[in-house]
């Protein structure tokens, strides 16, 4: 049986997948603004690697008008319900020879929070067919934002999300862990207790609070303000990371991002998570809020990714919808080349 593993996000990419925002009931008054932000993210990533933007049938021209088409961003049309490809697109894995496959986990719109979601449950398979990549099915519901991997056997997730009864009520922790190991080629799962308290949309995805930056190195959110709702929770996460080792027995180096960003959008306050960034070929694209803390956070993230250009992209409307740059992107790791 061929063994596959999910490579780390900093590994070489053939490109990035994104989906065009069209769910009007989610975006409401910020729909035009969020389209601009998605286009800005796509263009920022396209400076480092090709981007394929998937739009629902009939919305391709809308996406091309803002993203361009052929200047690093290619727009195609496939049936979609929503626009969060970190969670509904396939998770790509490689075998020992560098052959690529895609794991097609089930998707239920973060515990059936939005309807319909049947097209998004099917989009992973359609993308794999479009790309000519072999499909590995899984009956487990899993969003890509719920995990971070080091490419060397270690996966970090949160109990708050993966053990939530609205995802896989028929599976216990051991069964979920076994499926992660089987499909993604990991050998150790580290369970953090918490995602973000304010992250009610995803029930606490790990990509808002922690990310592997290199083998043996993690970047974590650690708010410096004692009044922040996650002040104690993120310190509990840090304690777990301090006490654990990775799959190869290494203690983890922890890089703290103490900055947080809040802003008013559509008559409400939202939080922009600096941890919700995308690692591209030679770059890191980070959501920012247009506040003084942005530059400080970008500087911290730059220390975690030496040699990469760190780019901030305003993402207030994306945060209003419940996510960040990482949430709306999915990397396609480079496969073996022939010839």
CATH fold-level topology: L-arginine/glycine Amidinotransferase, Chain A
The structure class reads: alpha/beta
Q: Mean pLDDT score, rounded?
A: 97
Count of helical segments? 11
Question: What do we call the CATH homologous superfamily?
Answer: L-arginine/glycine Amidinotransferase, Chain A
Could you characterize what this model shows?
By secondary structure, the chain is an alpha/beta fold. It has one domain (4-333): 5-stranded Propeller (L-arginine/glycine Amidinotransferase, Chain A), CATH 3.75.10. Helices cover 29% and strands 28% of the residues. It has helices spanning 24-27, 31-46, 60-67, 85-88, 109-112, 118-131, 159-162, 173-184, 231-243, 293-304, 316-321; strands at 4-5, 13-19, 51-55, 73-77, 91-95, 100-106, 134-141, 148-149, 154-158, 188-192, 210-214, 217-221, 253-257, 261-265, 268-272, 278-280, 283-288, 309-314, 330-333. The chain has a 4-stranded mixed beta sheet with strand order 1-5-6-7, with helices on both faces. A 4-stranded mixed beta sheet has the order 4-3-2-19. The two termini are 26 Å apart.
């Amino acid at each position: 049986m061929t063994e596959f593993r999910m490579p780390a996000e900093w590994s070489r990419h053939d490109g990035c997948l994104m989906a065009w925002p069209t769910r009007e009931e989610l975006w409401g008054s910020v729909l035009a603004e969020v389209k601009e932000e998605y286009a800005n993210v796509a263009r920022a990533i396209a400076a480092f690697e090709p981007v394929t933007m998937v739009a629902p049938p009939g919305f391709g021209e809308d996406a091309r008008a803002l993203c361009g088409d052929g200047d690093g961003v290619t727009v195609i049309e496939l049936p979609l319900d929503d626009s969060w490809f970190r969670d509904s697109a396939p998770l790509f894995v490689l075998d020992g020879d560098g052959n690529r496959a895609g794991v097609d986990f089930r998707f239920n719109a973060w515990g059936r929070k939005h309807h319909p979601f049947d097209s998004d449950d099917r989009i992973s398979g359609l993308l794999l067919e479009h790309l000519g990549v072999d499909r590995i099915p899984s009956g487990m519901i899993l969003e890509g934002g719920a995990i971070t991997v080091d490419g060397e056997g270690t996966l970090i997730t949160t109990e708050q999300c993966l053990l939530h009864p609205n995802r896989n009520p028929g599976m216990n922790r051991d069964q979920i862990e076994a499926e992660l190991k089987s499909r993604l080629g990991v050998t150790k799962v580290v369970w953090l207790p918490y995602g973000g308290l304010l992250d009610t949309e995803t029930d606490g995805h790990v990509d808002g609070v922690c990310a592997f930056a290199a083998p043996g190195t993690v970047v974590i959110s650690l708010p410096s303000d004692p009044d922040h709702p996650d002040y104690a929770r993120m310190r509990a996460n840090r304690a777990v990371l301090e006490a654990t080792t990775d799959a190869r027995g290494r203690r983890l180096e922890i890089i703290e991002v103490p900055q947080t960003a809040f802003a008013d959008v559509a008559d409400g306050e939202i939080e922009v998570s600096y941890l919700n960034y995308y690692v591209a070929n030679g770059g890191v694209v980070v959501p920012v809020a247009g506040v003084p803390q942005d530059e400080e956070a970008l500087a911290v993230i730059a220390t975690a990714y030496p040699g990469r250009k760190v780019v901030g992209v305003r993402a207030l409307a994306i945060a209003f919808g419940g996510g960040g740059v990482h949430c709306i992107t999915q990397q396609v790791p480079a496969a073996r080349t022939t010839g």
